[in-house]
């Protein structure tokens, strides 16, 4: 069912959720940079549409540092304790569709035979309210990986920005409708006239602070989708036999081996397990890790199967576009473009795959 | 200017003087496109020299590649450097990481890429290069890049050169220490430990970084505030008297953390205590690697 | 009823094995009393005292740090303390930039004969740190979750 | 019991046996009796062992799955976790989670001759299969064990080599690299591939398990092929870097396989299908 909601009312809703003690995450501007971060109030929410947040909402479902359990060391005795950081109910507001899609993708690996209960619990407690995209930048390539600016996968509620600050609300899941039930003010949407017959703009909503929305909002039908950057079939055809292809060293020669692509990517999910503590007490925690780092596959004997940086870049491309889809089904990539957006030397997935597709007959 | 750059490199490659030119370029297919993304390229064939460009998006400090085995395996290298990048070569040579005689340095005159460092730049024309592309503009005393259009029409040259590289740092240090700690607490809370600040830095050439060593694990690898403070204190201090201020670490940070103040604080300490500025004098001993009997300080009782 | 528990600062002292450690030992053999707040950690030379150790001390709950070694010229390894002096001349400004309280970080030269100086330094340090109070600023950062 | 798949069981160290200068084998038992009773594993599987405060590391379970009152693992002292495990003695508590991975197809090997070839520290993952085969002797044909190490002092489970030789139909060939022998050394001298070739092993209806350093495997496989063993009859256990052991953390991924779940036991045929990323 779809209703409509003014941006101002959404702001009030966000403030309600925060007041009810829920952790609300959304795009906000920090030092001039658009990042998903926890919102202290609705005023922090930044609905700029022609810029994509430089990180992803992955941290809500899969935090960069998460305590697995605690340990207390005694003499010939050890006590393991449940990690006491409670997992609070989370709401993500104005997520991009290419972020929301990470849930259905990561569910596969985190439930492959062994159920990762902490991930699953966060997943249950998280409601994702997505804002369909009407703009894209040079790095977006969702359309090249089978996704779209209004791809509903993973979203509990899909918002479509209409003109004059009105949002069309489509609740896609039970969790989503519970969140928005009875809270939509159903203002008549001037341009499309599709809003349900709600009463006129009531006094208090009129003078609410209107959140900053980019002026030129066009209706979602003529929203622009990014052009196709590469032919996915050609890429997968190349990957099927191209592991030893001589061009890999050239394709990734400028890669510096940092983790900016992996850590801002919605679907990269590799992690490290470390013990942290001093003396008799500590925690065993899980931290983000990335196949781009040298120690990731370093054996105790000193042997490293992937000693060269281009081997590591090749592994990242293979894991996303061949290994994961073959083993679990979906691509391990939603086309958000953050890897290129954040790469200090302009690499990331799209440029490499575009180069591959261009040179594959 | 771009034409002379491409011609110089084509000549070097065809003469066999160098096997690879490390420069700035873009996709062959995107030549001429106004906002085509610029990134480091490694030209090995003379006919590819056409991919080289020079514009106001050539930020990378290419000296970082001289330590990579994948580049060294290509043979003798020519490297295109701006004035700030060229300083890194001086430091790397002094720390015996590169043999200056084995690389061909193409200096490129640059009047600023709209970065904070450019406002107080005094090396518009790189020193110690084998050849310089672009030349000193007559009369103004500052080299002009010739070819980099700038908004205000004066070739983007700063009209007055603020004499103090550390003005911003002094303002920051004037704030109370609790406020400074709170600032870093708020900034470093965003750090996700992707180590882009380490990987883009030509000075970070350790085969295995201290943060990747676990006996002992003196720096926590977790992206908690504790781990982030320990990491950024270590990274900044390892640049004392070595950081040339190319500001690639701040540009590369995906979470928008401005690390300049930390680099400036150790640079200022080296300059005010030991009159040492990284990359200035090829003969000067590295400040942290050497000592002087007459070093004077006022805090050791 | 004993008087209210006075704040007992935790002071971590990184000392060089050849001079200050012997100086402290001399203080002991001379029965010179000094507060027990100091935890002495012996290292071969001030040249070996890594700047990370100072950060580690605050991370793990220290309220003040003392770094002490041989006077310039006395170093058993001839130049360890000269290198250390340069290191601290460069590291203190960085601590300032981070806003870490450098009045809790002390550097002294104490030779093997200066047992009395060791006693005075530790006593004075304990007092000044007691006035400054516990260093919750950095510890609270290190205990922040996630 | 927790539903946290990363939380280990607490195990008490029952016995520590120093095999060589830097290799120890440790026997551990569940602290919680109920867990001990319903615990079972198949030879070839591995577990993740925790030295709390240092970390976790994967090691093969080198005891036979028929032994009920303890499980055993063996490690070389190389890093932070093995250093902490090295200092454990009887009564200390360590963590264990597992069993993980697939196992040796003992039922598929029924009725076949078994050829076990091990090198250096790789004897533990083979030892469990040897004991299992000896405890079900009638199910298997001839058993040949070829075990080599750099020098005599490096041989792990050396005392058990002689006990295995006493079983009927079992031939044990132990060897040390040239120059590694001691005056009273009665075994062979030479590299494992050469020793296997000289041993004149019959490969009809046989299955081989080869585990050792990559260089040893690289030169042993052609010898086995020459003997007539097909790629699907040669098995090995891969030694990838691992962290979670449950197919989540991505470390052990090599081509289509997650070694911790799809392996660690692979046939040579499967390994040849994997990309050269090992």
Secondary structure tally, helices of chain C = 5
**Shape type of chain C:** globular
- Give the end-to-end Cα distance of chain D, rounded to a whole number of Å: 37 Å
Low-confidence spans of chain D: pLDDT under 50, at least 5 residues? none
Work out the count of structural domains of chain C.
Answer: 1
> Which architecture of the largest domain in chain D would the CATH scheme give at its second level?
3-Layer(aba) Sandwich
Helical amount of chain D = 10-25%
Structural class of chain C: alpha/beta
Mean pLDDT of chain D: 93
Tally of helical runs of chain D: 8
Instruction: State the major sheet of chain D.
Output: 7 strands, mixed
Strand order of the largest sheet of chain C: 2-1-3-4
Oligomer description: heterotetramer
CATH class of the largest domain in chain D: Alpha Beta
Percentage of residues in DSSP E strands of chain D = 25-35%
The largest sheet of chain C, given as strand count, sense and whether it forms a barrel, is:
4 strands, parallel
* Euclidean distance between termini CA atoms of chain C: 42 Å
Largest interface: A-D, 49 and 46 residues
Radius of gyration from the alpha-carbon trace of chain C, in angstroms: 16 Å
Number of strands of chain C: 4
How would you classify the helix and strand content of chain D by structural class? alpha/beta
In short:
The complex is a heterotetramer of chains A (361), B (301), C (146) and D (278). Chain A is an alpha/beta fold.
Report on this structure:
The complex is a heterotetramer of chains A (361), B (301), C (146) and D (278). Chain A is 29% helix and 20% strand. Chain A has 361 residues and is α/β, with parallel strands linked by helices. Chain A has a seven-stranded mixed β-sheet. Chain A has a four-stranded antiparallel β-sheet with strand order 5-4-11-10, with no helix packed on it. Chain A is globular, with a radius of gyration of 22 Å. Mean pLDDT of chain A is 87; it is low at 189-222. In chain B, strand 6 (135-136) and strand 7 form a beta hairpin. Chain B folds into two domains: 2-144; 167-274, no CATH class. Chain B has helices at residues 2-15, 69-72, 83-94, 116-119, 167-174, 177-188, 196-199, 225-237, 248-252, 260-274; strands at 20-25, 39-43, 77-81, 103-108, 131-133, 135-136, 143-144. By secondary structure, chain B is an alpha/beta fold. Chain B starts with a helix and ends in a 27-residue tail after the last helix. In chain C, helix 1 (20-29) crosses helix 4. The model of chain C has no long low-confidence stretch (mean pLDDT 94). With 278 residues, chain D is of the alpha/beta class. Chain D folds into two domains: 9-100, Translation factors (Elongation Factor Tu (Ef-tu), domain 3); 113-237, Nucleotide-binding domain of ferredoxin-NADP reductase (FNR) module (Rossmann fold). A seven-stranded mixed β-sheet of chain D has the order 10-9-8-7-11-12-15, sandwiched between helices. Chain D has a six-stranded antiparallel β-sheet with strand order 4-3-6-1-2-5. In chain D, helix 5 (192-199) runs parallel beside helix 6 (214-227). Chain D is globular, with a radius of gyration of 18 Å.
């Amino acid at each position: 069912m779809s209703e409509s909601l003014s941006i101002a009312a959404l702001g009030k809703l966000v403030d309600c959720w925060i007041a009810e003690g829920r952790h609300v995450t959304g795009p906000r501007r920090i030092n001039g940079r658009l990042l998903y971060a926890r919102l202290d109030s609705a005023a922090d929410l930044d609905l700029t549409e022609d810029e994509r947040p430089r990180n992803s909402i992955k941290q809500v479902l899969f935090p960069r540092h998460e305590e697995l359990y605690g340990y207390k060391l005694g003499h010939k005795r050890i006590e393991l304790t449940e990690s006491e950081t409670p997992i609070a109910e989370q709401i993500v507001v104005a997520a991009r569709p290419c972020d929301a899609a990470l849930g259905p993708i990561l569910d596969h690996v985190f439930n492959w035979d062994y159920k990762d209960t902490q991930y699953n619990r966060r997943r249950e407690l998280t409601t994702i309210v997505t804002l369909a995209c009407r703009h894209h930048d040079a790095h977006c390539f969702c359309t090249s990986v089978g996704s779209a600016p209004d791809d509903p996968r993973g979203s509990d509620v899909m918002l479509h920005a209409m003109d004059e600050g009105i949002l069309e609300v489509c609740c896609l899941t039970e969790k989503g409708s519970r969140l928005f039930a009875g809270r939509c003010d159903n203002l008549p949407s001037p341009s499309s006239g599709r809003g349900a017959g709600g009463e006129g703009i009531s006094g208090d909503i009129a003078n609410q602070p209107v959140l900053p929305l980019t002026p030129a909002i066009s209706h979602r039908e003529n929203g622009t989708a990014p052009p196709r950057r590469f032919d996915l079939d050609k890429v997968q055809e190349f990957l099927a036999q191209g592991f030893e292809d001589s061009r890999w060293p050239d394709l990734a020669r400028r890669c510096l081996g940092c983790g900016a692509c992996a850590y801002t990517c919605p679907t990269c999910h590799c992690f490290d397990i470390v013990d942290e503590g001093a003396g008799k007490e500590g925690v065993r925690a899980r931290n983000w890790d990335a196949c781009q780092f040298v120690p990731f596959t370093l054996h105790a004997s000193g042997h490293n199967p992937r000693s060269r940086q281009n081997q590591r870049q090749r592994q990242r491309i293979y894991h996303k576009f061949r290994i994961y889809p073959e083993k679990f089904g979906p691509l391990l990539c939603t086309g958000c473009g953050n890897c290129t957006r954040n790469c200090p030397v302009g690499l990331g997935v799209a440029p490499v795959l575009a180069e591959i597709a261009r040179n594959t007959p | 200017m771009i034409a002379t750059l491409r011609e110089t490199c084509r000549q070097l490659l065809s003469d066999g003087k160098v096997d690879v030119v490390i420069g700035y370029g873009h996709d062959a297919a995107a030549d001429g496109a106004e906002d085509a993304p610029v990134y480091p390229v490694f030209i090995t064939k003379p006919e590819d020299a056409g991919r080289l460009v020079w514009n106001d998006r050539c930020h990378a400090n290419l000296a970082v590649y001289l330590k990579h085995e994948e580049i060294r395996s290509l043979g003798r290298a020519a490297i295109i450097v701006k004035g700030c990048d060229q300083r890194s070569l001086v430091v790397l040579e002094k720390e015996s990481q590169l043999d200056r005689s084995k690389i061909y340095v193409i200096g490129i005159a640059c009047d600023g890429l709209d970065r904070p460092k450019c406002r107080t730049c005094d090396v518009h024309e790189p020193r110690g290069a084998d050849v310089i592309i672009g030349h000193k503009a007559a009369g103004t005393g500052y080299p002009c890049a010739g070819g980099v259009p700038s908004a205000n029409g004066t070739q983007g040259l700063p009209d007055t050169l603020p004499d103090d590289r550390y003005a911003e740092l002094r303002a920051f240090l004037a704030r109370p220490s609790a406020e400074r700690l709170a600032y870093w607490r708020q900034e470093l809370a965003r750090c996700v430990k992707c180590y882009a600040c380490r990987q883009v830095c030509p000075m970070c050439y350790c085969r295995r970084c201290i943060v990747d060593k676990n006996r002992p694990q003196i720096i926590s690898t977790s992206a908690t505030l504790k781990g982030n403070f320990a990491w950024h204190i270590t990274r900044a201090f390892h640049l004392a008297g070595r950081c040339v201020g190319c500001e690639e670490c701040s540009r590369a940070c995906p979470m928008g953390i401005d690390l300049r103040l930390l680099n400036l604080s150790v640079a200022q300490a080296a300059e005010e205590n030991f009159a040492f500025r990284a990359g200035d004098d090829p003969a000067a001993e590295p400040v942290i690697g050497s000592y002087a009997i007459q070093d004077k300080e006022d805090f050791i009782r | 009823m004993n008087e209210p528990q006075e704040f007992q600062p935790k002071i971590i002292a990184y000392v060089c094995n050849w001079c200050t450690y012997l100086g402290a030992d001399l203080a002991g053999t001379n029965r010179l009393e000094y507060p027990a707040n100091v935890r002495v950690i012996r290292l071969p030379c001030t040249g070996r005292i890594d700047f990370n150790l100072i950060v580690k001390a605050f991370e793990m709950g220290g309220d003040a740090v003392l770094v002490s070694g041989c006077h310039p010229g006395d170093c058993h390894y001839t130049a360890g303390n000269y290198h250390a002096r340069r290191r601290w001349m460069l590291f203190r400004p960085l601590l300032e930039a981070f806003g870490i309280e450098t009045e809790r970080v002390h550097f002294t030269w104490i030779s093997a004969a200066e047992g009395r100086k060791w006693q005075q330094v530790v006593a004075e340090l304990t007092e000044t740190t007691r006035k400054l109070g516990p260093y919750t600023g950095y510890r609270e950062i290190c205990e922040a979750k996630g | 019991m927790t539903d946290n798949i990363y939380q280990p069981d607490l195990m008490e160290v029952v016995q520590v046996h120093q095999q060589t200068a830097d290799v120890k084998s440790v026997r551990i038992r569940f602290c919680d009796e109920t867990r001990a009773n319903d615990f079972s594993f198949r030879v070839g599987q591995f577990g993740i062992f925790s030295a709390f405060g240092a970390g976790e590391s994967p090691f093969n379970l080198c005891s036979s799955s028929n032994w009920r009152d303890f499980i055993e693992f063996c490690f070389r002292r190389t890093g932070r976790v093995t250093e902490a495990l090295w200092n454990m003695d009887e009564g200390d508590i360590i963590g264990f989670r597992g069993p993980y991975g697939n196992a040796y197809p003992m039922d598929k090997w029924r009725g076949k001759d078994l050829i076990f070839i091990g090198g250096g520290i790789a004897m533990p993952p083979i030892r469990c299969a040897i004991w299992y085969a000896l405890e079900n002797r009638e199910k298997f044909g001839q058993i040949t064990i070829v075990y080599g190490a750099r020098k005599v002092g490096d041989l792990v489970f050396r005392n058990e080599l002689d006990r295995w030789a006493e079983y009927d139909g079992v031939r044990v060939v132990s060897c040390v690299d040239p120059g590694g022998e001691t005056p009273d050394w009665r075994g062979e001298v030479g590299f494992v591939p050469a020793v296997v070739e000289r041993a004149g092993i019959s490969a009809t209806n046989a299955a081989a398990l080869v585990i050792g350093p990559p260089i040893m495997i690289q030169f042993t496989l052609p010898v086995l092929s020459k003997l007539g063993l097909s790629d699907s009859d040669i098995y090995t256990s891969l030694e990838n870097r691992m962290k979670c052991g449950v197919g989540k953390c991505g470390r052990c991924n090599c081509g289509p396989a997650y070694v911790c779940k799809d392996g660690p036991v692979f046939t040579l045929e499967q390994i040849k299908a994997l990309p050269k990323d090992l």
